[in-house]
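Tokens for Amino acid transporter transmembrane domain-containing protein. Go.
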Amino acid sequence: MGRFGYELISVMFVLQLVFLVGSHTLTGSIAFLNLTNDGACSIVFGIVSAIILLLLALPPSFAEVAILGYVDFTSIILAIGITVIATGVQRNEMQMASDWSAWPAPDAGFVDAFIAVTNIVFAYSFAICQFSFMDEMHTPKDFVKSIWLLGIIEIIIYTLTGALIYSFVGQDVKSPALLSAGPLLSKIAFGIALPVIFISGSINGTVAGRYIHGRVYRDSVTRYINTVKGWTSWIALITVLTLVAWVLAEAIPFFEDLLAISSSLFISGFTFYFPAMMWFMLIRQGSPFSKENLVWTVLNVVCFIIGIVILVGGTYASVEDIVSAFSRPFLAAFV
């Protein structure tokens, strides 16, 4: 798509990363509220979460925070492990079947269905930062291997976690799912999950900052952030990005809706219709209707259609649900 496409995807890339930082800001606020029994205003905890994300995003090199990745992974595995075990034990103690179903709830409408779909799309969109990581890999040719490894591990963990917790909890499963572990164990799970909430969130801020900083100072030594000017501009940039993410988290303080609108506007492209377009325009060799390309043509057409449907339907559903969520407290006040 030429220069227009370059700028469009750049804006979408940065906005998606900022939305991810915002989702982690909101998750951190939910975690602190849960740990303190709603001991303070959610805005206060949102500010605290944003400050932590800001500080962790300040190291400009991924090598400097690589060790935190191991802490990050251990944190999420322990947190979801506690949640899965706790919900399973609670279901066993209740000695009654869960009300989970493989089919949508009978009263689920268009908005509910698309919010659920966009949340699933959000969960499985795992590779948006990989190009930035490749830039600092010791052996860049291992990039494809890292994508396969990350994808396989994440799909297995996310699928097992979602399926097990839903089968144990049923229709009353909460979002985030850690809230479903019960009052005490959810506190423990959120306490253990704090590293992954803030480390993963801050990495998105670092990636967005690196991309913008690298473009602004493309032909200057300032891009390496090893001068006074470099550090000053870097800190200012990360501060602005984190501030915007915090505003988004406060403007859309509903976890599912924040994920849904991010998924609809941006992930639908990065996961579905952009890869399909890339295959047709950059990778495909020969006619799309040739025998060797026919299967790939069908698959990429399907991916493109799915992406457009999520973009349009998901955005509409997200906006409708956000408007409805904001109107409920005001309506209740007049009843």
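The chain has a mean pLDDT of 88.
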